[in-house]
Each structure stands twice: as structure tokens, then as C-alpha cells.
Design a protein that fits this description.
The chain is an alpha/beta fold and about 300 residues long. Helices cover about 50% and strands about 15% of the residues. The chain has 14 helices and nine strands. One of its GO terms (molecular function) is [acyl-carrier-protein] S-malonyltransferase activity.
């Protein structure tokens, strides 16, 4: 059995996330307290009371999700439930880096906070949005994208779910083309055109920031969004983390590569079950694997059987 922990990104949040663990674990209370101090946010109030509009501000959301996912991971570790492999979707790569021992807890929170600040600033300077495309494959989406300037591939989530970033008008035009081709375009409620050149300003400054952050060799296997492959070199990992801001998330390929590397148990560590659905759509039904999702203490304790 080879277990992969997978950590979700933006879009999994809800008001109340992490509260069950916070109430039942002093370790989680300590993580929330440290996150509040480093990120200069009242993390308890933000996660448990919201409101949703405040929680979904990029500057708040990224540190909040990272805090909750690290808390869940810590509770799993306390129960001696540990991964052989880790991966994360976009922001989720940071809890994965912590889980693999690449970043300390303090540095994970510092990096996530700076990333959120820079992304929010870039999005305000270069407004854009995102469009999810379903019922078309990647080749057809790329064919349509080739006819437009101002739109880029952002997330390759599953064989039938692809997300693009761009200007609102361009994405509106592309949505019509997608409809004509037999697909469907779903506008996403996001604060920016993530994983595209729209946030290039953030990438430049984030690279400089990461140069001063110590990256350690991973203690376990870790896969990355920009290549869909595993990587061991701290310097290459550092490079991938700043490149990730403007590069597509190759989640579909990453999941396939994890399965090919022997992963047969996927455990989603985070709020909701977004990645669970994407993995189930990516790996055929006849593949021999198990998948679980946890975010409460009961769910963690019920996992003893895996």
C-alpha cells in the first residue's frame, strides 16, 4: 500500500472550516495562534465566523486554507497516519511542502502570506478572471485558445475539466466558442486570473522573496503542479514554487503519474472534497485504488482501517 496525501487549493473554503479540530486539539490551537501572529490575521475569527466575503479575499483565504490543512495533517500525524507521497493543488502545494519537511511551519506560513499579498496586488493591477470548461478535452481547449490573445490555460484538473484565465471579455467570447464545440463554460467566482501572465508582477517579487527562505530536501516523495513529476532538489523546488504562479496546474497528469508511481490510496487533507472528485474523474473505474477525504477528528479516527 502506498498512501498519497493531497491538499486542495482555493475554492474548498467555507465558514467554519477547521473548527472541529480546533475545539478538540491543543496542537491545532497552537497552529492557529502561530498563523494569526505571522499572518497578522485573527485566524479563529476568520475561519469560524467569516463572513464568507472576507474569507474569500485572497490575502485572507490563502493563509486560512494553509492553516486548516496543516492542522488536519498534524492531527493525522498524531494518529500515526502518515503519507508515502504528497501533492497539492496550487496553494495546496504549501501544506504539502510542510508535510514533506521542505519548509518549516513558520516559513510555510510566511511564504503563503507573502504569496497572497503579491497575488492580490497583481490582480488589482491587472484585473482578470477564470472560466472552467467541461465536456471538452485538453486538445480541443488548446485549439480554441490558439485563436485568442489574452487567455491562457490555468488548470488541467481532469480529462473533462479545464480552467482558463484571461480578461473578462475574452473569456466571454471563448465561452461562446466552447458552447458551439459542444462544451460548457462556467465562470468562476475568483479574484484574479491566476496561473497566468496576468500575475507576472507577483512572480518577479515572489522569486526574490523565496531566495531568502531555506528549502530542505523532501523527506518523502512530493509531486509538483508545474511538471506533474516528483522532485528532490531543494533549489529546483524553490524555482518551481515561483514559476507556479504563472504556470498551469497540471493536476490531471500529476494524479496519473502518482498512480503510475504506485500510489493506491489517496487521502484528501482539507475542507470539502474537491480533489476527491477530480481524482475519481481522472483515474478509470477499473483502476485499483482507494480514496478518502478527512477534515474532522471523527473522520481522522475512523481512518485507522486504511
Amino acid at each position: 500500500m502506498k498512501v498519497a496525501f493531497v491538499f486542495p487549493g482555493q475554492g474548498s473554503q467555507y465558514v467554519g472550516m477547521g473548527e472541529d479540530l480546533w475545539e478538540k486539539s491543543s496542537e491545532v490551537k497552537d497552529i492557529f495562534a502561530l498563523a494569526s501572529e505571522i499572518c497578522e490575521i485573527d485566524m479563529v475569527k476568520l475561519c469560524f465566523e467569516g463572513p464568507m466575503e472576507t474569507l474569500t479575499e485572497t490575502i485572507n483565504l490563502q493563509p486560512a486554507l494553509a492553516t486548516v490543512e496543516i492542522s488536519i495533517f498534524s492531527c493525522l500525524s498524531r494518529q500515526k497516519i502518515l503519507p508515502h507521497t504528497v501533492a497539492g493543488h496550487s496553494l495546496g502545494e504549501y501544506p504539502a511542502l510542510f508535510a514533506a519537511g521542505v519548509l518549516s511551519l513558520e516559513n510555510t506560513l510566511k511564504v503563503v502570506r507573502r504569496r497572497a499579498q503579491l497575488m492580490q496586488e497583481a490582480a488589482e493591477k491587472h484585473p482578470g478572471t477564470m472560466l472552467a470548461i467541461v465536456k471538452l478535452d485538453i486538445d480541443k481547449v488548446k485549439e480554441i485558445l490558439a485563436d485568442y490573445k489574452g487567455a491562457e490555460l490555468a488548470n488541467y484538473n481532469s480529462p473533462q475539466q479545464i480552467v482558463i484565465s484571461g480578461s473578462p471579455q475574452t473569456l466571454k467570447d471563448i465561452s461562446e466558442r466552447v458552447k458551439d464545440a459542444g462544451g460548457r463554460g462556467i465562470p468562476l467566482k475568483v479574484k484574479g486570473a491566476w496561473h497566468s501572465s496576468f500575475v507576472k508582477d507577483a512572480q518577479v517579487m515572489f522569486k526574490a522573496f523565496l531566495d531568502d527562505i531555506p528549502f530542505n530536501p523532501p523527506q518523502i516523495e512530493i509531486f509538483f503542479n508545474t511538471t506533474a513529476q516528483a522532485e528532490n532538489s531543494p533549489e529546483k523546488i524553490r524555482e518551481m514554487m515561483w514559476k507556479q504562479l504563472c504556470s498551469p496546474v497540471l493536476w490531471c497528469e500529476e494524479v496519473k503519474n502518482m498512480y503510475q508511481a504506485g500510489v493506491d490510496v489517496f487521502l484528501e487533507v482539507g475542507p470539502k472534497k474537491v480533489l476527491t472528485g477530480l481524482i475519481q474523474k481522472t483515474l478509470p473505474q477499473d483502476y485499483n485504488y482507494k480514496i478518502f477525504a478527512v477534515e474532522t477528528m471523527k473522520e481522522i479516527k475512523d481512518l485507522k482501517d486504511i
